[in-house]
């Protein structure tokens, strides 16, 4: 599992709580690291799924405009929940207002009434997470709604680039979901710091009022500016591959996939294939990579991951995973995903079969547990 603390960091100690660890519990004990999944482009909304979720993450670099938020949200409404995680965002009131206006504007353009309202938000300075749900949803659809935040450092820069994570835990229509939006330490050399921050966040969120009898989430969705870079390649060879649409050859250089493959972080998580170009660092106002004196190596710093706690309980289908190259207001490109969930119903066998099997098990001196009765 690696070191659980970063040397030189003033992190408070925590008691180990297995159910609260979002990055170490694996869906499959034989799988280490992040499982890459292909996106199934066709989503039959509300036909084959119990819940569809649209997820967006964007490091805004302190800038915001209505037009770009509207482009990021889009006009497609084939989802019930919309989660928007922002890093280096301006003041919360401005962002929240513009997000609501962007949703409303797109609804009007979509020839529809408002169908989604904000049902939860959590703010830690420039690190923000918003959750929207159907405006016509019954109150009984939400049986749990909790927020938490975890800082992993101080402030930096003019706008206060807060590092850490904000999270929302919700039980929506019987599906227990944890959304985590994070902003981790920058710079290519800070790999172990980022690993440690992931572990600290994982074990700290929702731990203050931890209930040992509460049921774990069905799925954890982790998004944000994770800040993992490309390792072992210089900027110009990397850019040449990207310019020739060969950026898939850079997957093996990705620090996040490397560290997960070593078993350090995100065991059992899934991620869509990185078919889009690295999302950082761009010249603001363009789709050209950094031309400053630093000429930074492009990297997939902005990611969306998810983990199913028990694959016998719920099925997840990823329908899209993409960057939004047309949005140029930041040095990062937004990333979006569309994820649909289906609860796997436990079918109860007819009573005559259950009873007959109970008799068989009794005749075997109760050596076996009756697997057919619930």
TrEMBL record:
<dbReference type="InterPro" id="IPR036691">
    <property type="entry name" value="Endo/exonu/phosph_ase_sf"/>
</dbReference>
<protein>
    <submittedName>
        <fullName>Type IV inositol polyphosphate 5-phosphatase 11</fullName>
    </submittedName>
</protein>
<dbReference type="GO" id="GO:0009753">
    <property type="term" value="P:response to jasmonic acid"/>
</dbReference>
<dbReference type="GO" id="GO:0004439">
    <property type="term" value="F:phosphatidylinositol-4,5-bisphosphate 5-phosphatase activity"/>
</dbReference>
<comment type="similarity">
    <text>Belongs to the inositol polyphosphate 5-phosphatase family.</text>
</comment>
<dbReference type="InterPro" id="IPR046985">
    <property type="entry name" value="IP5"/>
</dbReference>
<dbReference type="GO" id="GO:0043813">
    <property type="term" value="F:phosphatidylinositol-3,5-bisphosphate 5-phosphatase activity"/>
</dbReference>
<dbReference type="GO" id="GO:0009651">
    <property type="term" value="P:response to salt stress"/>
</dbReference>
<feature type="domain" description="Inositol polyphosphate-related phosphatase">
    <location>
        <begin position="49"/>
        <end position="347"/>
    </location>
</feature>
<dbReference type="InterPro" id="IPR000300">
    <property type="entry name" value="IPPc"/>
</dbReference>
<dbReference type="Pfam" id="PF22669">
    <property type="entry name" value="Exo_endo_phos2"/>
</dbReference>
<dbReference type="GO" id="GO:0009733">
    <property type="term" value="P:response to auxin"/>
</dbReference>
<dbReference type="GO" id="GO:0009737">
    <property type="term" value="P:response to abscisic acid"/>
</dbReference>
<dbReference type="GO" id="GO:0034485">
    <property type="term" value="F:phosphatidylinositol-3,4,5-trisphosphate 5-phosphatase activity"/>
</dbReference>
<dbReference type="GO" id="GO:0046856">
    <property type="term" value="P:phosphatidylinositol dephosphorylation"/>
</dbReference>
<dbReference type="GO" id="GO:0005886">
    <property type="term" value="C:plasma membrane"/>
</dbReference>
């Amino acid at each position: 599992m690696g070191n659980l603390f970063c040397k030189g960091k003033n992190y408070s100690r925590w008691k180990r709580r297995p159910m609260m660890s979002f990055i170490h519990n694996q869906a499959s004990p034989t799988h280490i690291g992040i499982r890459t999944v292909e996106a199934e482009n066709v989503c039959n909304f509300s036909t084959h799924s119990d819940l569809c979720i649209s997820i967006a993450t964007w490091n805004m670099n302190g800038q915001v405009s209505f037009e770009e938020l509207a482009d990021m949200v889009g006009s497609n409404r084939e989802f019930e929940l919309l989660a928007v995680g922002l890093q280096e965002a301006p003041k919360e009131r401005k962002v929240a207002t513009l997000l609501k206006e962007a949703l409303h504007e797109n609804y009007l353009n979509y020839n529809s009434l408002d169908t989604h309202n904000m049902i939860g938000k959590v703010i830690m300075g420039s690190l923000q997470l918003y959750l929207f749900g159907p405006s016509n949803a019954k109150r009984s659809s939400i049986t749990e709604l909790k927020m938490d935040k975890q800082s992993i450092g101080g402030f930096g820069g003019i706008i206060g680039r807060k590092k850490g994570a904000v999270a929302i835990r919700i039980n929506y229509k019987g599906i227990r979901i944890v959304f985590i939006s994070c902003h981790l330490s920058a710079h290519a050399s800070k790999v172990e710091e980022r690993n440690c921050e992931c572990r600290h966040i994982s074990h700290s969120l929702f731990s203050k009022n931890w209930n040992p009898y509460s049921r774990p989430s069905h799925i954890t969705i982790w998004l944000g500016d994770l800040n993992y870079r490309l390792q072992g390649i210089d900027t110009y060879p990397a850019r040449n591959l990207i310019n020739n649409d060969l950026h898939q050859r850079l997957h093996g250089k990705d620090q996040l996939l490397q560290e997960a493959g070593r078993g350090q972080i995100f065991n059992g998580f899934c991620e869509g294939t990185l078919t889009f170009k690295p999302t950082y660092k761009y010249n603001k106002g363009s789709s050209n990579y950094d031309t400053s004196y630093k000429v930074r190596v492009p990297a997939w710093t902005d990611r969306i991951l998810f983990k199913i706690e028990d694959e016998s309980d719920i099925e997840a289908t990823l329908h899209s995973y993409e960057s939004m190259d047309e949005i140029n207001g930041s040095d990062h490109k937004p990333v979006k995903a569309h994820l649909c969930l289906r609860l796997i119903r436990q079918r109860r066998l007819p009573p005559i079969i259950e009873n007959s099997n109970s008799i068989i098990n009794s005749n075997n001196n109760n050596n076996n547990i009756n697997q057919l009765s619930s």
